[in-house]
Amino acid sequence: MVSILIRKFNGYYAARPVFTTMVTNAVLGGIADTVAQTLTAFQRRQRQRELDPEAGNSKDDFMSMEIQEVNKKVPWPTEFLSARPPPFDFERLVRFMSYGFIMAPLQHRWFGFLHRTFPMEGGKATTSALRRVAFDQLLFAPCGLAAFFTFMTVTEGGGKRAVVRKFQDVYVPALKANYMVWPLVQVLNFRVIPIQFQIPFVSTIGIAWTAYLSLTNSAEDETIGTASP
């Protein structure tokens, strides 16, 4: 099955590389947000158990123990602890899929630029890979993260003030988290993965990362909502 998928992807990529990358990014972004929304529902249920002992013993629930680790990183406002898990947000899913779809052409050009500027030939593969990672993390990563929070805030109906608030509250922590995860991933990506698979590889690994961003973005929205008059 994997071999068939790879052949199919190679065929589509050879014919229409940018569009194939756009569709792939959109699908993986949708998977990531689905994971994030599922985690959100488990977070709410776990909070309910903590407030209502009759709802069940959360200490015996393995999934609840896992979700507690997420709660420590992305805490929910106390005003929402007793609320029921929210219904699945299809509009939010569309926003994440749209973001991946829109960003794919820019990613495609950027990875092509790195491929041409730092060729992996002449016995300098490791050095070139490290240079690609340095350029990617110092230039593209901060801009990409800024684009993500701006896009999400604006498409959610927020204005300039909401964008500024989002940057003040979550941008720097998210950027720090980025530097803890992505440099090692990108070294492997640039050193080992063929160029046609580099963006899908990043998007696949990025399912967990995008889920983290989704949780961060939605948790901050909840906080803003409780603080608003």
UniProtKB/TrEMBL annotation:
Bilayer disposition of the protein: Multi-pass membrane protein
Record flagged with keyword Oxidoreductase: no
Compartmental location: Membrane
Annotated Gene Ontology cellular component terms: membrane; mitochondrion
InterPro entries: Mpv17_PMP22
Alphabetic keyword roster: Membrane, Transmembrane, Transmembrane helix
Broad class of the protein's primary localization: membrane
Xref: Pfam families: Mpv17_PMP22
Family statement drawn from the similarity comment of this UniProt entry: Belongs to the peroxisomal membrane protein PXMP2/4 family.
Protein's name in the database: Uncharacterized protein
